[in-house]
Amino acid sequence: MKVIALKGDLTEQLISQLREALLDRTDIELRIDSPGGSKELKDEALSIMEKITDDEFTITGVVMGEASSSAFMMLQCCTIRKALPSATLMFHPLQVSVPQGVYVMGGETAADPYEPEYLAFLGELSARTNLPEDTLWRWGSDERIFTAEEALQHHFIDEIVRP
Question: Among the CATH numbers 3.40.50.740, 3.40.50.1980, 3.90.226.10, 3.60.21.10, which is that of 2-95+105-160?
């Protein structure tokens, strides 16, 4: 098992480590203490993580401190999700820079100011947690912070682990 630490903002170094794990064809323990990071790096990380799990390798995400924004989304893509008792988790909508109702690619209008990717994420999170999408939407919009115990109750993590 390869251990990869996500401490601080998402970086190119993390992307390189994920790529290396994909090439090594090995299970990963992703130790998270991060406020998130850029959408581009998050998208790249999630793409690599999907390939790893598609190859039937396990990614175990362990929140060591904070898993917010993009880091929360990465945690939710892990096969197994754990957190230390003192961990906190938070997610929020990914806003589009296009104002509502403005023409966008493909001849459609931006029906709401949030990325379709975030709406799809809420659907997947709802399916995994059995929580209604509107509840998840409200919590995300409020940028609610969850303790490890609350995250366990709401199925954002699978277990609380002791250091």
Answer: 3.90.226.10
